[in-house]
């Protein structure tokens, strides 16, 4: 692997009236990012200039380019993406035009990621309400990216330095969760989680905990049958094949007693079951990673926070970690690919052993 190569990391500005641009500015300003990657921002130069002026980032400069081939590895690059009616920056307000800009930036960055023009993508938060349209009819980034890459299943994987947590069901109403909890859906997410831990995080024999669905993990069937009839059989089947998968665990006790520290990752059944404890433990450092894509995509684990926009109070910690995670995952993938391509197959090993025996 070329140690001098700096991956091109695309960063979408998200909703320009939220805190996305602020945390991007702060993340790039405070860290010597250009020594680790070539940052390429996707958004509107006009609005980003206004935003940084509002926050007093007068010395922060970006280099406008038409495509990633023009990116300067020593500067902050920006690809202008907005095509639409002129509109003014109105920090803290939900505007249709801002949603249009957010989508156009995401669409262009996704196309570049698919084409290999950038090595990874970091997405600042969008407002799902004002981003909806003919081309974006999705609950969020995760579903849009899965559709764009033509992938049926991806894993919403929340990661921090100490905790990695995925969910079986994502952005769906609670009443639909039970209908989507079955052996097939759980198995798919476990496969995605295991593959990601190996390829993206370098954990060759991952230890995974699986949470129950019902209170107290069903209390031996008194509070629900899903644990006994669906979740536990799946876990046992994987463990019979040599996987270090355990559960189902009651969510409250699992986190209250810090059992999660004994595992490389945790699989929750639904969105709030997993994201609530995750954000309590790693709100300023957590990263939302979409596992299962051929490209690398990360995001801070917070939203647009319109109430903070323009106040210069947003914490850039999660955005910084999202950028670092994108770089690390990309490098881990490259390293794993090289090791795999250079690995000697079992058949070749047998031939070598046989040849040595004949010589001796």
TrEMBL record:
InterPro entries: PdxA_fam. Keywords: Metal-binding, NAD, Oxidoreductase. One of its GO terms (molecular function) is metal ion binding. The keyword NAD applies. This is 4-hydroxythreonine-4-phosphate dehydrogenase. NCBIfam families: pdxA (TIGR00557).
